[in-house]
Structures are given as structure tokens and as C-alpha cells.
Design brief:
Rossmann fold; six-stranded parallel beta sheet; alpha/beta
Length: 423
């Protein structure tokens, strides 16, 4: 199969799980003998743009005609079987979908977050879950400046969401949700349920797996409020006041709370801030852990670190909402704590570190779950199934209706969008 992957890479200064997923899928497909091309933009390039180009960038976020023309020419020249779209912000825009329609190539889109219904894609405001824009207009996001705390920065995203809802509806054959939790939110918002399927991200089988009981509790991720970092610090202080967990907490990552975490960890024997790990260090740190903790306060669309822990045979303590509920089998592969509750988090950490035999059984159960649902083999099978469904839909084969609609608009569907989405 010939696949063209379309992706706007996130800035390298902010390590991106989405970038990793794209790279791993490309490597997986190529390793299986498929031809994979790349059509990419890099957010790193924004820094070297001229001042006029930077000033014009917000105007191109909703629609970039130059990208449409360039991609359509590439598609006509290369003739891929399918286009796989990932992130299009800020340098690509939904114009990539029109290019696919121009060239008559079916498009598959992986939805890595909630940007289809929420301008910043987080479903969170002021540290709490928020669904104000779901199923309606994105005006609440603009009013509250939900993207980077800025109304001006939020406006291009809100305009793109409103202006391109029908484009996404008509221009994508298959939407790939990375969790059932994400799919449920999008269906409630009115997105086309028949073309929203769940395809969990896979994780490469790690070289390092846990041997023995482990030596630390590990937080691995962005140091941000939404990731539950302050919640973790409060829970760990509660544990320490009650005698501790018996092993240290290691925090690895970077982000807006880095200074706060550094100051909190300074001088403590039960906490170590390790800074930013590279991928090899991440795998090694997971394999040395009694447990990995994922206390996010926002509704995670997935949770790569949870699956990475399962792959290494390490149980997870995670917040009991969002995708974590389907990734962590409570009491079997890890423990779920009450979201936003430091005492519940402290209790789960205490329980998972107090019984080494039970902990190791959870780790083995997690490894089995990884092999059955999140391995590269499973990931490849599901990805190819979705590509075949998209190609069948575009050609009129299978159970998917043949393409209809206005020429040149990207419309391939005769069925109208559900109320609340695409109006």
C-alpha cells in the first residue's frame, strides 16, 4: 500500500507524544513493506520566518491556499492510495482536505486530542474539565482565552473550528479516535458516529522490562497543572507525613511548573527531580519503577505512558477518568484514584507499593494486556484495516456509501451532519 502522511510537527522544545506516534507508525508501515511518503511542516521553522510572515500566520491557520495547491500537486504526482492526516496546526490548515478532494485521494484522520470540538483541544479551563464548546460554538473559548491564556491566540483556532467543521465532515473517510472515551465525547458533540472508530496507539516493545520489585515511583511527563503535577506533590506530602511510600518519587519532564517542582524537591531524600529524559532514559526509568503515576486532571484522550508502563511490566496509578479508565484495569493492571483528590492518589500509591507480590502480578497482567491490545503487530493490523475501509469508501466499495457532493469542495457524503456539528 502507498500512504502519504500529512503532519505539522510540534516544536522540538516541547517533546510531543503525537510526533512520536507519527514517527512510530511511519516506521511500522515501512518495516512491513509499505511505501510511505511524508508531507510535513515544522513548528520549529516559525522562529526563522520574516516578521511579515509571522504576522500573516494567524490568518492562514483556518485556511492555507498555498498548502492546498502544493499538496494537490504532490498527490497528483505520487498517486498514493490513501492520505493519513495528523496535526494540521498551525502551518498546514484543513486546506489539506481540499487538496485530497482535488486529487481524488481518500483521507484518514487521527484525532489526537479534542480540537474538533474545543479550540485548544484540552476540554479544560482553569484546571477543571470543561465542555462549554462541545456541541456548540467556540465563543466560550475565545471569551476565556483558553489557548495560551490569550483571546488573540484563541481566535484563529476558533475561526478554524467553526469555518471548517463541514470540511472535516465531508473530506475525511475515517476518523481514528485514540480511545473510546474520546470517541464518546465526539459522538455526543454530533460528529459522524459511523466514521469514528477507535484505534489505540501502539507502543514499540521496549528493550528494558522490569526485573524484581522496582526502586522508585515515577512521574514521566509534562510539568503542567493539567497533568496533575501539583496534585501529585500534595499527595506525596500526605504520604510523607504518614511515614512515606518506602521508595522515592522521581519526576522527569519539563514544563511551566519546572521551577515549582525543583524548589519542592530540593533537599528531600524522598523526591528527585531528574529533568528531561531522552527516550532511552525514559524506557530505563520505567523499567526501574515500582509504579508509574499518571494523575492528570484533564480528560486524557489517551495515555502513552500508561501503555509504556504495561509494556515494561510495570503497574500504573492513574486518574479514574478519560481514557485511563479503559487503559488501566483497576485492581488488575494498576489502580485508579478519584480524579483531583490528593488523598485518594496517596492511598493508591501506598497500596501499590505496600505489597510487592501483588504489585508484580499487576505488572505481569499489564504486560499481557499490552501484548493483546497495544503491540506493534496489533497496531499495524488495525491501521491497515482503517486504510482499506477508507479506500473502499472512496471507491464505493464495501458498506461505505459511494462519494457524492459538490465537485471541488471535498464533499464525499450524501448524509447530512448531525445537529450541533457541521452546521
Amino acid at each position: 500500500m502507498h500512504v502519504l502522511v500529512v503532519h505539522n510537527r510540534y516544536a522540538s522544545a516541547q517533546p510531543s507524544g503525537e510526533n512520536n506516534v507519527v514517527d512510530q507508525e511511519v516506521e511500522l508501515l515501512r518495516g512491513a513493506g509499505h511505501r510511505v511518503g511524508l508531507f510535513e511542516r515544522r513548528s520549529d521553522d516559525i522562529g526563522s520566518m520574516s516578521l511579515p510572515a509571522k504576522a500573516a500566520l494567524p490568518l492562514l491557520v483556518p485556511w492555507n491556499p498555498g498548502v492546498r495547491k502544493e499538496l494537490a500537486a504532490r498527490l497528483r504526482a505520487d498517486r498514493p492510495d490513501v492520505v493519513h492526516v495528523h496535526n494540521v496546526f498551525p502551518l498546514l490548515s484543513p486546506a489539506v482536505l481540499a487538496a485530497c478532494a482535488d486529487a481524488g485521494v481518500p483521507a484518514v484522520a487521527t484525532l489526537h486530542n479534542y480540537t474538533q470540538v474545543c479550540p485548544p483541544g484540552t476540554l479544560q479551563r482553569d484546571g477543571r474539565p470543561c465542555s462549554a464548546c462541545v456541541g456548540g460554538t467556540p465563543l466560550p473559548a475565545v471569551r476565556h482565552g483558553c489557548y495560551r491564556g490569550s483571546r488573540a491566540a484563541t481566535v484563529p483556532l476558533a475561526v478554524s473550528l467553526s469555518a471548517n467543521r463541514r470540511r472535516w465532515w465531508s473530506g475525511v473517510e475515517r476518523f481514528l479516535c485514540i480511545s473510546a472515551a474520546q470517541r464518546d465525547v465526539l459522538v455526543r458533540a454530533g460528529m459522524p458516529a459511523g466514521r469514528l472508530s477507535v484505534k489505540h496507539n501502539f507502543v514499540p516493545d521496549p528493550d528494558a522490562r522490569r526485573e524484581g520489585a522496582g526502586e522508585q515511583v515515577l512521574y514521566l511527563g509534562r510539568l503542567a497543572e493539567a497533568k496533575g503535577v501539583r496534585l501529585l506533590m500534595a499527595a506525596w506530602d500526605e504520604l510523607a507525613a504518614a511515614g512515606g511510600a518506602g521508595v522515592p518519587l522521581v519526576i522527569a519532564g519539563t514544563g511551566p511548573l519546572e521551577a515549582e517542582v525543583t524548589a519542592w524537591a530540593a533537599g528531600r531524600e524522598d523526591v528527585r527531580y531528574a529533568g528531561l529524559y531522552d527516550p532511552e532514559q525514559c524506557r530505563g526509568a520505567i523499567a526501574r519503577s515500582v509504579a508509574v503515576v499518571a494523575p492528570s486532571t484533564w480528560l486524557e484522550a489517551f495515555g502513552l505512558v500508561v501503555v509504556e508502563a504495561m509494556a515494561a511490566g510495570v503497574p500504573t496509578v492513574a486518574a479514574g477518568h478519560g481514557a485511563f479508565v479503559e487503559l488501566v484495569e483497576d485492581g488488575v493492571t494498576g489502580l485508579l484514584h478519584r480524579p483531583g483528590d490528593p488523598s485518594s492518589l496517596a492511598s493508591c500509591i501506598r497500596r501499590i507499593t505496600a505489597d510487592p507480590a501483588r504489585n508484580q502480578e499487576m505488572g505481569r497482567a499489564g504486560r499481557r494486556r499490552y501484548e493483546q491490545g497495544f503491540s506493534p503487530r496489533v497496531g499495524l493490523e488495525r491501521l491497515l484495516d482503517e486504510y482499506r475501509a477508507a479506500i473502499a469508501g472512496r471507491s464505493g466499495g464495501g458498506e461505505v456509501p459511494p462519494p457524492v457532493g459538490e465537485q471541488g469542495t471535498g464533499s464525499r457524503r450524501g448524509d447530512p451532519p448531525r445537529a450541533g456539528w457541521g452546521q
